[in-house]
Amino acid sequence: MSDKNINKEEDIEFENENFIDEEFDNQEIEEEKDEVEVLNEEIAKEKNNFLRLFAEFENYKKRTSKERIELFSTASRELMSALLPLLDDFERGIKEVEKSSDKDLLEGMKLIYEKFKKTLEQKGLKEVEAKQGDSFDAELHEAISQIPAPSKKLKGKIIDVIEKGYQLGNTIIRYPKVVTGN
Q1: Which of the residues 24, 43, 108, 168 has an alpha carbon 20 to 30 A from that of 96?
Q2: Cβ–Cβ < 8 Å for 182, 146
Q3: 58 to each of 45, 53, 105, 178, how far by Cα in Å?
Q4: Residue 178: beta bridge partners?
Q5: What confidence tens digit (pLDDT) does each residue in 9-49 have?
Q6: Where are the domains of the chain?
């Protein structure tokens, strides 16, 4: 065989090897591309799961925070409602002691009453204003009785306040009980 034939055969063999290598490389590249696509899909799926879990956790934090605030306000409201009769009793007691001649007892009761009332006010308790001659508002007052108005000016107005009303923050916890004129 001549050198040319040997060279041609070597060239053909080399080309065949290159073609096989290229074909193998192309297959490898396609497999890697498929693998990358699969991995990218898995990453996207995991990222989506993470975002959903994170959003769910944020909602949980907001919900528990809101529930905690509601629990404290409810507990405070219940405690204040339970203490209001004591405040009323103090006021009635002071009125009765004023009738007696014991000024030291009256002064002591007033001091305790003022301290008690101030403590409740510091915790957010406010008196709902209702006095004789005010217009009756069904959203702010509780009418327990109606009597004939002593004058035309007092028709539809408050004649007497039987029990004071109180609010805690912006919520009325006890409506003032009033007598209205008709």
Answers
A1: 168
A2: yes
A3: 20, 9, 58, 47
A4: 143, 161
A5: 555 555 555 555 566 667 777 888 888 899 999 999 999 99
A6: 125-182
131/140 Cα distance (integer angstroms): 12
Instruction: Give me Rg for the CA atoms of the chain.
Output: 43
Q: Three-class SS string for the chain?
A: CCHHHHHHHHHHHHHHHHHHHHHHHHHHHHHHHHHHHHHHHHHHHHHHHHHHHHHHHHHHHHHHHHHHHHHHHHHHHHHHHHHHHHHHHHHHHHHHHHHCCCHHHHHHHHHHHHHHHHHHHHCCEEEECCCCCCECCCCCCEEEEEECCCCHHHECEEEEEEECEEEECCEEEECCEEEEEC
Query: What is the per-residue pLDDT for 33?
Result: 82
Give 125-182's CATH code, choosing from 3.60.15.10, 3.40.50.720, 2.30.22.10, 3.80.10.10. Answer: 2.30.22.10
Residues making up the chain, counted from first to last: 182
